[in-house]
Design a protein that fits this description.
Length: 174
């Protein structure tokens, strides 16, 4: 038969095991709750960090888009100015060519040594529109004058294009 002492020891052992098990379960549930709280706090911090990063990217994209729109606006204004300057230069050159073709305007050059008695030079006196007073001038052939005007037209267009390129580069640097 089992002695009362053995039964008492078994009951005591069972009570100690039960107390140990209860303490273990309580500690485990407390640690689980702490771990869950810590994990939730980390998840919330990570979510807040991701949201802040997303907001920063969106703000950066908005700023870049605004900067790009401003650049496009400046470039469009420069292009409009360039086009207007080119159109004005072409119109001026066309008027000049028309005036040369109708003999309304004659081009002349300064002569290094005036022709003596040849009668082919323009008198040394100038009209109210003259540039050089008192120098002998020779009149250019209308075809040669047209070629000179065409060359200056090309040069003017080149200078206008160069100015447009410089304005474009300056706009990009801003």
């Amino acid at each position: 038969m089992i002695s009362a002492r053995t039964i008492g020891a078994a009951v005591s052992l069972a009570l100690v095991a039960w107390a140990f098990w209860g303490t273990y379960e309580h500690g485990r549930s407390t640690m689980d709750a702490e771990w869950q709280a810590k994990s939730e706090k980390q998840a919330n911090a990570f979510q807040a960090e991701r949201e802040a990063a997303a907001v920063a990217v969106i703000n950066w994209q908005d700023a870049e888009q605004a900067r790009r729109r401003a650049l496009e606006d400046r470039l469009q204004a420069n292009d409009k100015t360039h086009h207007q300057e080119l159109t004005n230069a072409q119109a001026t050159q066309a008027r000049l060519r028309d005036r040369l073709a109708t003999s309304d305007l004659r081009l002349s050059v300064l002569l290094a040594a005036p022709a003596q008695g040849s009668g082919c030079g323009v008198p040394a006196t100038t009209s109210a529109g003259g540039v050089v007073h008192g120098a002998a001038r020779g009149e250019l052939d209308p075809a040669a004058a047209q070629r000179i005007v065409a060359i200056t037209d090309d040069g003017d267009q080149g200078l206008i294009a160069l100015q447009a390129c410089q304005a474009y580069v300056r706009a990009l640097d801003k």
